[in-house]
Amino acid sequence: MIQLNKKTAAIAAIMILGLVAGGAILMTGRAPATNAEAHGHEEEGHGNEEHAHGEEKKEKEKEEGKVALTEAQIKAAGIDQQVAGSARVQATLRLPGEIRFNDDRTAHVVPRLAGVVESVPANLGQQVRKGELLAVIASTALSEQRSELLTAQRRLELARTTYAREEKLWKDRISAEQDYLQARSALQEAQIAVQNAQQKLTAVGAAASSRALNQFELRAPFDGTIVEKHISLGEAVREDANVFTLSDLSSVWAEMAVPAQDIGRVRVGEKVIVASSASNEKAEGTVSYVGSLIGEQTRTAKARVTLANPQLAWRPGLFVTVTVITEEVDAPVAVRAEAVQSLGDRSVVFLAVPGGFVAQPVKVGRAGGPFVEITEGIQPGERYAGANSYVLKSELGKAGASHTH
C-alpha cells in the first residue's frame, strides 16, 4: 500500500511539471529558439529596418526638392509647362570679350603745325560734325606758308600780264620770238609756284586764307564723338601732338580672346551673340576678324565682331560675353534654355508632379539658342517648367531657409 502511494505521488509530480512548462510556453507565445535561429531573425529585422530607412530618406529628399503649388498658383506665377523632346540645338562657344573703339572709325587728331592755342571751342564728350571747328592755333610756320602763297600769286599775276604783252608783240612782229618764249616760261614757273604753295597748305589742313595769316583752324575729319582731349587755352603744342581723339561710336568692336585649342571653331563670318555683363543688352553679329598669331604669354588669338551701335548702348570698356554659334545639331532630349536653373553646384530642371514641381538634377550637353541638350536626368515626354521657372527656384530657396531656422 505504501509502495502504491509513492508511485502515485511521482506520477502527480511529473504531471505538475508538465503543466508548468506548458504554461510558460503559452505565456511567451513560442517555444524557446536556438542561438542560430535568434541571430537569423535579428539580421532579418535589421535589414528590413535599413530598407525602410533608405526609402524614408529618398522620400524625404524628394519632398525637400518639391515645390507645392496649386493650378491657380501656377497660372498666377506665369509658369509655362513644356514637354521634353528632340529639338535642334546650336553648339556654341562662349568667350570673354570687351567693347573697344572701331579703329577704322577712330582718329587721333594732330595739329600738323606747331603753335600756341588761341581757343578751344570743342569739349570732351561732345558730338561733332565733319568740318566742325575744334581749336584755333597761332602758328608762325603757317604764316610763312601763307605768305609764300600770296607772293606766288602776285608773281603769277605779273607773269600773266607780261606773257599777254609779249605774245601780242610777237604776233605783231614787233618783238623777237625769244622774248615771247621767255615770258611763257616765266608764266609756267609762276603757276607751278602757286600750286606748290597751295599743296603745302592742303597737306596741313589749313585754308588758303584766314582772318590772320598765322591762324590755324583745327577741324573734325568726320562725324563722331570727342573721346579724348589733350589741349587747353594758351598751351604750346607740337606738330605731332595728339590733341583730340575722335571716334564714330555708331560702330564699335567686340574683341575676344580665343584659346589656341578653339581657333579652328572660330571663323570669319560665323554668327555670334554678344551679351553685356552689366545689363540685359544683347546683339547679333558676325566674326569680322580672327588673328593669325597666338600670344606667347596668353596662348590666345584675338578675334573681333563689328557691332552697329545706333543707340550708343555699347560703350568702349564694357565687358561682354561673346557666344559663337559653331554648328547646329539634333538633340534627342532638349528643354527650353530658361528651364535650366542652378542649385548650388548642380543644374536642375523642375519636373511637373501632382501638386507642384520637383527639382530634378540634370546633366547639360550642348547649349545655344532657345534649347539646351539634356544628356542625363530627363526622359522624352516628361513635363517641366519652362518660362518663369526661376520662381520655383526662389520658392525652394525660401523653403530651405525656413528649415535651417
Describe the protein's architecture and organization:
- The protein is α+β, with helices and mostly antiparallel strands and 405 residues long.
- It folds into three domains: 68-84 and 330-404, conserved putative lor/sdh protein from methanococcus maripaludis s2 fold, CATH 2.40.420.20; 94-102 and 248-327, Efflux pump adaptor protein, beta barrel domain (Elongation Factor Tu (Ef-tu), domain 3, Beta Barrel), CATH 2.40.30; 113-246, Beta Barrel (OB fold (Dihydrolipoamide Acetyltransferase, E2P)), CATH 2.40.50.
- Helices cover 34% and strands 35% of the residues.
- The protein has helices at residues 2-28, 35-64, 71-77, 140-171, 177-203, 390-404, and strands spanning 66-68, 81-83, 85-101, 106-109, 115-119, 127-128, 133-138, 215-219, 224-229, 236-237, 244-247, 251-259, 271-276, 282-290, 300-308, 319-336, 341-343, 346-353, 356-368, 371-376, 383-385.
- The protein has a six-stranded antiparallel β-barrel with strand order 3-12-15-14-13-16. Strands 4-11-9-6 form a four-stranded antiparallel β-sheet, with no helix packed on it.
- Strand 13 (271-276) and strand 14 form a beta hairpin.
- The radius of gyration is 47 Å and the shape is elongated.
